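Hi U.,

Before I forget, here's the chain from the pilot set. I'm dumping it here mostly so it's searchable later in email.
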Amino acid sequence: MLVIALVFFVCLGALLGIALGYAAILFRVESNPLVDQIEAILPGGQCGQCGEAGCRQAAEKMVAGELNPNACPPGGSNLAVSVAEMLGVSIDVADQDKPLVAYIAESQCTGCNRCYKACPFDAIVGAPKQLHTVIKDVCTGCQLCQKACSQGCLSMVEVQPDAANWYWPKPTLPVAV
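Structure:
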């Protein structure tokens, strides 16, 4: 009896697997491969800072030319350059703001867990009713945690230059007066 049940469920699983495979081929939705490539390099946090509902919509608008390649603040200038190269357009990233990272004033944090739940990148570590802290290497500066903090103990600070993320100031020419 056990063998009959086992054979039945194996056959049922195989039949349903074949049916799902056929349905995937039959109902496949064709999409623009360039949109797929751009979506793959976007951060994927669905933060909405670009003004779109998610990264897929932002990628579609970038390909259509309705959104600038540097519209994604968490991605920074490296992402903007990559997207611009994929789209074949040129952009000026010299005037972009410096990258931000979240900072929690731990003396004011009550452990309400709102910032932890709001972070789409899992950059905040903590537990309910305990102090929270930010993993600076993971934080993209999307500011969703700052909006969610009811205590006002979370702020955005510039990333401090170190060996991993240093930058030179933009060169300027002296102006003769």
